[in-house]
Amino acid sequence: MEYVVAAVILLVVLLAGAIGLVVPRMRRRELPPSETGGDTTTLERPSAAEPGVETPPLVVPAEVDEGLPPLIEAPVEEKAPEIERPEPTAGRLVRLRARLSRSQSVFGRGLLSVLSRDHLDEDAWEEIEDSLISADVGVEATQVIVERLRERVRVLGTRTVAEVREQLAEELVAALDPEMDRSLRTTPHDGRPAVMLVVGVNGAGKTTTCGKIGRVLIADGRTVLFGAADTFRAAAADQIQTWGERVGAETVRGPEGGDPASVAFDAVKRGIDTGVDTVVIDTAGRLQNKVGLMDELGKVKRVVEKHGPVDETLLVLDATTGQNGLEQARVFTEVVDVTGVVLTKLDGTAKGGIVIAVQRKLGIPVKLVGLGEGPDDLAPFEPAAFVEALLGSAA
Ligand SMILES: Nc1nc2c(ncn2[C@@H]2O[C@H](COP(=O)(O)OP(=O)(O)OP(=O)(O)O)[C@@H](O)[C@H]2O)c(=O)[nH]1
């Protein structure tokens, strides 16, 4: 009997010992973050609950921590977006002239090779005419230009290529009506900002152009606010807002599918409150044959004009659509009073002569030209620099 009692006591003592050894190992708890800085990762340590037992934190250097998921998220540093400084606008067309190289090969090189012939006979004049027409100058304008050039060559007895080239350049510049006012009305007046409405068919590059115009104005020292009244295309408001953020300009936007006129109204109101120089309003790309949509554009203008008249209404036209684009453009001019044309994508066409056709057909000055997808690839239009770029050199 005593043996049994002794065995039981021994068993109990052994069991207690085993439990005493095992339980502290199982009880582990999470530690507060290490004070050793960001270069280390704290894992965990056994409980220090037992008095008098100081257990140092278990830390591993970051470089041996590869593959272990971080236990404590490092705080993400919020970086303020960098504000860009757009390129100055003066002389942009000259800087971007190489972008017209496609046009130049049709318009310039072809013409110059004809002009360099010893004798300008009937065939040569016909070739000159064809070159101008295929560069989208338009039949009517071409006939006027060629007629005047022929007359000058005959009367003045011009002979050298350089002289004929010079006279052709003068005729092309004249066809572009260099006296037209191409300035943008963007100065605030009567205690409110200048208001610019940007219209045109979808895909012409309207939203992109709004962003680029904002940069042109900022480069010229103005402050700008964007109105994202293209509530029709979901991404358009994000697009214009991103353009704005890059140059530190605010964007007023409304709910997707909301009333564009109300967004435009709010944008001008915000512009008045914040005292910016110019409010640039992007409108939905609408097809001119959809009467309802065109009415909507008229409404945007009327509602904005509750604050005062719109100072500038720019029609954005895609140069690559050629003569077709002109028909679409005409409808816009009937709904809103277009004060200037922005001809985009001139870098993507061999038909740079469209500038002449647009101005002639619409009787509205081309004020800006788009020569690429870069943020500063929009240049104030200058007839003489443009013609020089198209013709290239006689060499
Ligand atoms: N190569 C070239 N591409 C351009 C130019 N201007 C605009 N684009 C491009 O044309 C495309 C259409 O531009 P958007 O600004 O989205 O056109 P949108 O008229 O606002 O279109 P909607 O909002 O649908 O009416 C984009 O890929 C632009 O980068 C230009 O001068 N040259």
Task: Give a description of the structure.
The protein is of the alpha/beta class. The protein has a domain at 194-338: 3-Layer(aba) Sandwich (Rossmann fold). The protein has 13 helices and twelve strands. The strands form three sheets. Strands 7-6-8-5-9-10-11-12 form an eight-stranded mixed beta sheet, sandwiched between helices. Strands 1-3 form a two-stranded antiparallel ribbon. α4 packs antiparallel against α5 (139-156). It is elongated. Mean pLDDT is 81; it is low at 20-68. The structure holds guanosine-5'-triphosphate (GTP). It is a peripheral membrane protein. It holds the Pfam family SRP54_N. It is found in: Cell membrane; Cytoplasm. Involved in targeting and insertion of nascent membrane proteins into the cytoplasmic membrane. Acts as a receptor for the complex formed by the signal recognition particle (SRP) and the ribosome-nascent chain (RNC). It catalyses: GTP + H2O = GDP + phosphate + H(+).
CATH architecture of the domain at 194-338: 3-Layer(aba) Sandwich
Mean pLDDT: 81
Bound molecules: guanosine-5'-triphosphate
**Cα gyration radius (Å):** 36 Å
Shape: elongated
Name the CATH superfamily assignment of the domain at 194-338: P-loop containing nucleotide triphosphate hydrolases
